[in-house]
Every structure is written in structure tokens, then in C-alpha cells.
Amino acid sequence: MVRKPNKTYLPVFMALTAALLIALVLALLFGSASLSLRELVVGLQGGEDYAAVIARYVRLPRVAAAGLAGVGLAVSGTLLQGVTDNGLASPNIIGVNAGAGLAVILMLSECPEAVNLLPLAAFGGAFAATLIIVFTAGRIGMSKTTVVLAGMALTSVLNAGISFVSLLDADVVGMYRYFSIGTLAGVQLKQLAVPCGMIALSLGLSLLLARRMDALCLGDAAATALGIRVKSLRVLCLLCASASAAAVVSFAGLLGFVGLIVPHIARRLVGGSMGRVLPASALAGGTLVLLADMLGRTFFAPTELPVGIVMALIGAPFFLFLLLRKGERHA
Amino acid sequence: MLEIKQLSARVGGRDFLREINLHLPAGSLTALVGCNGCGKSTLLSCIGGTKAYRGEILLRGEMLHRLPLRERAKRMALLPQTLATPHITAEELVQLGRSPYVDIAHRFTAADTAAVHRAMETAGVAALADRFVDELSGGERQRAYLAMILAQETELLLLDEPTTHMDAACGAAFLQSLSTLRQQGKTILVVMHDLGEAARCADRMAVMDAGCVVYSGSREECLARGVLEQTLRVKRYEAEGRSFFAAME
Q1: Using a CB cutoff of 8 Å and minimum separation of 24, what contacts does A319-325 make?
Q2: In sequence order, what are the residues at sequence separation of 6 or more whose Cβ sits closer than 8 angstroms to the Cβ of residue B226?
Q3: Region label for B60, one of left (φ > 0), alpha (ψ between -120 and 50) or beta (otherwise)
Q4: Residue pair B134/B90 in contact by the 8 Å Cβ criterion
Q5: A158-195: pLDDT as tens digits
Q6: How many structural domains compose chain B?
């Protein structure tokens, strides 16, 4: 029997890549001070005039950070939704954001002079929270539900800690609020090297494990019967997800909604196979944050709207849309 | 092929399965029947390695729990009672059946691809290759899952109520394909609720009651001794050379 060839997703990936490139150029061109294409090209190559300084020292780091944040959070969300089989899972559900938040507010309260160490503290807090989740869930059974419930419990405890510190030391609340909204203002290229490496490593490892993750979606019993070490695979994926999100938290703060909504968009475009969803999410996530950051810089220029607020404005309605659709399906 | 000796398992703090002994000869199709909650699915979970047990399960003389996970998956395939319906194509689902054979990056050799195509042809889902699993009908989906475990190319197949979501015709066709697989040399253990279908398609019966296997042997002997009637409190009718069962009033 002659079988139809496999459905190809090449046009979708080409469109996503083109969208990312267009978003990249737009984000480089537009901001509180817009540049012409010629000024941008010349400025990126060298020179110390006004346009060149903006292009090289302000716009380029900012755009690189936005793209990286989008990729990292989207990859993290995709992995979490995959291993927990829960479409509402995102980096903050496993305590990544709350862990980073507690570490940052403690640092602001106890060592306010060490502002340069805040990214490191954020990363450490986020990663430590994930290790606690992995350890706790591993002790109980590492099932999909256990991971989600353990994450929610830890998030509550960490949020209580944040509230407690902010009650004790009211001076840190202002600075913490800025971190908790999520912003890319003032990011420098040298800050991005380590996060970039971590996100690339997480994405690479996740792509390697992508097909095994598809088997996880069949349920633990079926995956075990296929010869897959369910517990180890879930731990590995959780570590990749948290490393990726923690890397973003270290330079962008608690940027929400990207990890929640982008995997849904990607699945609609390329189906549910992780081998396609992961790269599609990475491309779509980068595009979304680039555009959100550009809008935040241009809408009320010269005043800047943090990217976290723009993402919340886009993400919250989308989240409600998801809930409504879920409700309709159950009805 | 598969030998279960003195198997016991606990559920909710009590002995749920008690001293089960069961032998599946190579090339047999055994229907595992019993009332709801008698322990059929739990027994399959023990064999599948997802439930702890005491006792021995031997696969071709080797202790099952000592076999590495991938090695076990090359010898025994399991289709659980409830499976999620991922948003992947039927072909991608069947490809997962090659998981025990491929490397960590899931790279396929020509032999893997051929095994996938063979399994799809055998299960009759070749035409559904590009359809998403969550968009298939219950019967088509179950056939796609059957193709997935066939792609594992194991000697032993364990199926837990595979015809639950199928209409009568679909279910009969599915069981017919199991009979064909048995004739091709596969050893099959299938949990079933429809006693009439079980009596028609299986050549051996295993009857469970309250966590124990009360009968295991040939279908003919099972029917001749009236094991099903006594254990499951059903009445048997014969028509057109076939057995039908109905609950006793």
C-alpha cells in the first residue's frame, strides 16, 4: 500500500524564523529614540556618534536579552507542561519564581550594597527551589500530580517568606517590586553569556530527550513498558526547565506568562511532538518577548513600560481564554 | 513463556492479590476474566513492572524484575487500560514502540522504520499515519496503540481491556487480529469483560475471583467444567455453535 508522505512542518518553521528575524530588526530600530536602518547598520559596525552608541550599547544588549528571555522561558514552559501533562504549568508553578524572589529580597535586605550579586542570588534561589521540588517529589513518587502539588506547596511557603521579609524591612519593597515585575532595562551583554550557555544547554539536552518525553505523555505505565526510566527522565526535564527559567530570572526578573502561553501557541502550529514543539516554542517565545519589549519602549516613549507589564497585558487575557475553552470542552 | 509463581501484592495496606500461579504457554492467547475489582489490572501492573509484588514472575525462565528495563521492553509489551491521547500523529505514536531499540536521540535505522511500517500494516492503521491520535475514533485509536506495541516486536503482549471503547463490530475485528497474531506465534494475555468474546477468541482462560486465580487452563475445559458460571454467577447459552453469557437473575 502506498502511504502518504509525512506532514511537513518546514513552512511553519520558516515562517516562525522569519517572524523572529523581523521582530529582531524592529526591536533594534524602534524605541524611545528610533533609528533608521542605515543608522542601525552603520552604528552596529562602529563609531561613537549618538546613533551608534544607542545601537551598540543600548539597543543590542536589550534586544539580545529580550530574545534570550523569550527562548528560555518558552523552553522551560514547554518542558514543564510536557512532563507534568498540565497545560497550565509554567516556571512559577515549580517554585522557580518564588525561589528567585525570596533570594533577591533577602539579598536586598541583608546586603543592600551587593546589588551586582542580585542576578546570582536570583539564579541560586530559583535553582535551589527546583532541587527541593525534585527531591520532595522523588521521595513521594515523582508522578505528574506530585510534582505540581509539591511545586504549589513550596511556592506558598516561599511567597510567605517574601511577605515576611518585606514586612520586616519596608525599604526593600520598592526595589523588589521592580524585580518582581520583570524588566530588561539596563541589561548588559556581558550579563548574558552564562544565561545564554545554560539556555542553549537546556534546549540541546531537551531536544535530545524530546521523543522520550512524547512517551511520557502516554502515562507512566505505558512509558515504563516502552523501556523508559520515567523518574530519571522527569528529573532531567525538570532540571533543564528550571535551569532555563533560572537563567532568565537572573537578568530579566520575574517575567511571567511567556512560559504559560507560548507552548500552547507552538502546539497549535506544529502538533504535540516535543521534537517540534521545543524549537517552535523557542522561536515563538523569542519573537513574543522581542515585540512585547519593543511595544513597552515605544507606546509611552520616552517613559518605558516594563516588559513584564506588557506580557501580563497580553498573557492574562490569553490565560482566561484558555480557561474558558477548557470550561467549554468540559461542558 | 511466562510463569507466575506464588505472586502476592498489597493494595491499600491489604493483600489484594494472593498466591497467584499462572502459566502462559508460548503461542497461546489467554483471556483473563473476572468480576470488577478482582485484581486483573493489578496483576497486569505487577507483570508490567509498575506494581510491587512478592513471588516470582519468570519470562522464558529468567526472573522478570532482574531484566534491565529496555531488555524487558524488547521481550514484553503492555497496553494499559487507560492511555492518554497525545496530540501526535498515529505514525509518531507507533514510532514510540521502537523506544527500547533506538539510541537516546531516538535515531531510526532502516530496520526500525520497516518495523514501524509492518506494525501499522498489521494493525490496519497505515492509512491513518498522518492523522492526530486525539482526532481518531475510539476504535482507530486502540488500533494505533496496538500498532505501537506491535512495533516493539516482543514475543509477549499484555492487553488490559483493549476493546472497552469499541462497538461490537470493531471489538470483534480487533480480537480477530489478536487471534491472527497468536497464529503468527505471539503469546498474548488479554484482560476481558465480555465472556462471550473471551470464549470465542482465546484458546486459554484464566479466571480470577477476589484476588486469586481460581482457574487457568484450556478454554474447552473451562467451559466444560462450568468455571465461569460458578465463579462469575452467569448463565451460559449456546447458539449457532457459540457461547453467550448473561448475568443470573
Answers
A1: A319/A257, A319/A260, A319/A261, A322/A87, A322/A88, A322/A261, A322/A264
A2: B236
A3: left
A4: no
A5: 889 888 888 888 777 777 777 777 778 878 888 888 88
A6: 1
Which amino acid is residue B242, in one-letter code?
R
Specify the amino acid at residue B192.
M
Domain chopping of chain A, boundaries? 30-324
Angle between helices A274-298 and A10-29 (to 10 degrees): 20
Task: Find the helix or strand (DSSP H, E) in which B160 lies.
Answer: strand B156-160
B126 within some domain: no
| A34-43 burial code (b ≥16 CB/10 A, e <16) | ebeeebbebb
- C-alpha torsion A7→A10→A15→A20, nearest 10: 130
Residue B202 scores a pLDDT above 60: yes
pLDDT value for A7 = 62
- In percent, how much of chain A has pLDDT > 70? 92
**What integer is the mean pLDDT of B16-42?**
90
Q: What are phi and psi of A48, to 5 degrees?
A: -125, 15
* Per-residue DSSP letter, B132: B
Residue B213 falls within a domain, yes or no? yes
Percent of chain A residues topping a pLDDT of 90: 25
User: Nearest CB to B126: which of A3, A218, A271?
Assistant: A3
pLDDT of residue A141: 61
Other CB atoms within a 10 A radius of the CB of residue A159 amount to 15
**B30 lies in some domain:** yes
Taking CA atoms, B85 is separated from A78, A115, A219, in Å, by 18, 48, 10
Q: Which residue has the cell 521502537?
A: B98
Tell me what the mean pLDDT of segment A234-245 comes to.
86
Q: Compare CB distances from B50 to A211, A212, A220 and report the shortest one's residue.
A: A220
List the domain range (segments joined by +) for residue B57.
2-82+154-247
At which residue does the C-alpha cell 501533562 appear?
Answer: A85
CATH class of A30-324: mainly alpha
Q: Is B87 on the interface with A (CB under 8 A)?
A: yes
Q: Mutation test of the interface with chain B: which of A2, A145, A217, choosing the one with the most B Cβ atoms within 10 A?
A: A217
In a domain, B6, yes or no: yes
Cross-chain Cβ contact A210/B50 below 8 Å: no
- Asked if the Cβ–Cβ distance from A226 to B73 is below 8 Å, we say yes
- Rounded to an integer, the average pLDDT of B31-36 is 90
Interface of A with B in 162-221 (CB under 8 A): 208-212, 214-215, 217-221
Q: Model-level pTM? A: 0.84
User: Which range is least confidently modeled, A242-246, B204-208, B237-241?
Assistant: B237-241
- In contact, A297 and A283? CB cutoff 8 Å: no
CATH number of the domain enclosing B171 = 3.40.50.300
ipTM of the complex: 0.87
Q: Residues B82, B127, A226, B163: is their CA dihedral positive or negative?
A: positive
Q: What is the pLDDT of residues A75-95, one digit of tens each?
A: 999 998 888 777 777 887 778
The per-residue pLDDT for range A247-294, each reduced to its tens digit, is: 888 888 888 788 888 998 898 889 889 999 999 999 999 999 999 999
* CB neighbour burial string for B54-68, b if at least 16 within 10 angstroms, e if fewer: eeebebeeeebeebe
Q: Is B45 on the interface with A (CB under 8 A)?
A: yes
